Amino acid sequence: MTRSLDDLASPYLRGLIPYSPGKPIQEVERELGIRESVKLASNENPLGPSPMALQALRDALPEIHRYPDGSGHRLRHALAGHWHVAPDQLILGNGSNELLELVARCFLLPGDEAVYAEQAFVVYDMVAQVTGAKKVMIPLKDFTHDLDGMHAAISPRTKLVFVGNPNNPTGTALPARALEAFLESVPSQVLVVLDEAYYEFLPPDVTPDALRFVRDGRLLLVLRTFSKIYGLAGLRIGYGIGPPALIALLNRAREPFNTSSLAQAAATAALGDVAHVARTRAVTEGGRKFLSEACRALGLAVVPSVANFLLVDVGRPGPATADALLRHGVIVRPMVGYGFPTHLRISIGTPQENERCLAALKAVLGK
Ligand SMILES: Cc1ncc(COP(=O)(O)O)c(C=O)c1O
Q: How far is the CA of 14 from the centre of ligand 1 (A)?
């Protein structure tokens, strides 16, 4: 009897749709024969990495024949000081994406349930799918997590709840009080994974204090990343903050050298570059205001965002519009896969990039 590869592989892989990343600029330019395009498709930092991180990388290069410090001692201690938590409350990941994967692998078995929003970062769905757990997806309400609906969906079989705040792809944030009340109300045997990849962009009035729950020993894993405001997406480094027992458990299944020495060095330096973070915030806030107002002036509906990207309803099929924008050298993301057939997700760029994007939108939409 011969078995096909599909029969050999885990049956849970059959329903898995591979993640589709934004195309690299070079590839788009080569394919379309265009130059100087702008990539506003992956919510990266348009100012680039911190100069201090670049210097730390240069300093770390001569040692790359050595394995990294698997536990990331120096970076964990720097993060512990930064967030007023203990170093054993921190775990590093090859991007926060790896920690999403790790947490699902450590907790979910077939028959268990994971609850998350239907239009949230697609990786929650992917990591749950691979485990064979039941995926309980709750539609957004007004482009924001429906926390009541999510709470009502928690059953005795629920092991994990994923919450993205700010949410990707909508850019919306939950009111801080509502999120904190939700964290308080989730049954204590359910692990909440609070994905705060865009945390540093939050305005003070909607910044929740989730770490308070971690310090109180609640079953909560807060995920953050160096890929967004810190501009280190290519290095792949993020971190999780949770109670020591949870972190110890995740460490058991973690790959021994999951984050590189270069990533650790750059992240430690980037964490200390407050000026770069402040510059990025300012450019993001200015660009977000500019692009939102300009899109609204074109008659397009823009979801109010607190993150470094905007979800814009272009009122016509998103993929064709994104393709047309590509020909003008502007790379954005259609959002059909998220159930938004006429929306585009546009990352905030530099002022020049935002102008380019607006001009291309006007041309493509005939406005
Ligand atoms: C909401 C959210 N969470 C997590 C990630 C993963 O980021 P990284 O793995 O680069 O840390 C992303 C990346 O786009 C995201 O948008």
A: 24
Return the ligand 1 atom nearest residue 168 CA: 1
CA 270 to chain CA centroid, nearest Å: 18
- For residues 306 and 201, the answer to whether their CB atoms sit within 8 Å is yes
pTM comes to: 0.96
CA–centroid distance, 60 to ligand 1, in Å, is 25
Q: Report CA(197)–ligand 1 centroid distance (Å).
A: 6
Question: Residues 24-64: pLDDT tens digits?
Answer: 788 888 888 888 899 999 999 999 999 999 999 999 999 99
Pocket test for ligand 1, best of 43, 103, 119, 168 (most atoms within 8 A of CB): 168
| Cα–Cα–Cα angle for 36, 332, 97, rounded to 5 degrees | 110
What are the distances in angstroms from CA 125 to CA 73, 130, 340? 31, 9, 17
Task: Report pLDDT digits (tens) over 262-306.
Answer: 999 999 999 999 999 999 999 999 999 999 999 999 999 999 999
Q: Which amino acid is at 261?
A: S
